[in-house]
Design goal:
This protein has nine helices and ten strands. By secondary structure, it is of the alpha/beta class. It has a five-stranded parallel sheet. A three-stranded parallel sheet has the order 6-7-8, with helices on one face. Helix 3 packs parallel to helix 4 and helix 4 packs parallel to helix 5.
């Protein structure tokens, strides 16, 4: 039996992508390992922490652009390390200058340095400013369905609720909230933060997420390149499982897997 091939692409800010895995570029040993992991992941969108990664602002240092050219990848500048709306907006304005008018950005405004939990009040304020200035904003937020809807209504092009705390590797702690966000959203919903292993990524996709963004789960693995490959397969398997539609769960409702009609019975 031939499996039907579906045109199932991720659409962000009017552009289509075959890969639903978005990967960060920090925490690797060097840019060469970064490139190897990105290649293994199949990711087409890569996130860049403007405050921590050189993309041209330091002329005499190695640049990520030399290893991940703009012709091959869509850059997603992010505001990692920002704790106020003003700081985040200023950082993304710099990114737009460095990348020749680039509009697609990832907004994250953190609440405190211990948990790295998002400050949703400052996030909303920054989102309003950035959308008004013409940015295409993918926004990291809590798993609060009301906040997620507000960010959509502001004009963000994607909302990215956490699965669990950044760098925790705890996986999806509240799948019910994620499902509420997904069911009520008219824009892509991507899990961001907390993924630790391939099964976490697959679960996110089976819930109906449009994609998953991760960094530490790959970069901090014992073998980052192999983990990147595992994440690629998990995203694809989870998406196919979601599209296929799982069988209903039935507690103590026995049902034979083979037909019971037409069986040969003893005379």
């Amino acid at each position: 039996m031939k499996v039907l091939q579906m045109n199932d692409e991720l659409k962000i800010a009017g552009k289509n992508y075959q890969s639903r895995l978005l990967v960060g570029t920090g925490k690797y040993r060097d840019f060469a390992e970064t490139r190897a992991a990105i290649d293994a992941s199949g990711a087409q969108i890569v996130t860049v922490a403007i405050r921590r990664t050189n993309i041209g602002q330091h002329a005499n240092e190695p640049s990520l652009l030399d290893f991940l050219p703009l012709e091959e990848f869509t850059y997603l500048p992010n505001t990692a390390g920002c704790y106020s709306a003003e700081e985040a907006v200023r950082t993304l304005r710099l990114a737009r200058e460095l990348l020749d008018g680039h509009k697609l950005v990832k907004l994250e405004v953190l609440g405190d340095p211990n948990t790295l939990y998002p400050n949703v009040i400052e996030t909303i304020a920054a989102a309003k400013t950035l959308v008004q200035e013409g940015f295409d904003v993918m926004v990291y937020t809590s798993d609060d369905p009301i906040i997620a809807k507000q960010l959509e209504e502001i004009g963000c092009c994607a909302v990215m609720p956490l699965a669990s705390l950044i760098r925790s590797g705890m996986g999806i702690l509240n799948p019910w909230n994620l499902q509420i966000i997904i069911e009520n959203a008219k824009i892509p919903v991507l899990v961001d933060a907390g993924v630790g292993c391939a099964s976490d990524a697959a679960i996110a996709m089976e819930l109906g997420c449009a994609g998953v963004l991760m960094n530490t789960a790959i970069a901090s693995a014992k073998n980052p390149v192999l983990m990147a490959s595992a994440m690629k397969k998990a995203i694809e398997a989870g998406r196919e499982s979601f599209l296929a539609g799982r069988m209903p769960k039935k507690l103590y409702s026995a049902s034979p897997s083979s037909p019971t009609t037409g069986m040969i019975s003893g005379a």
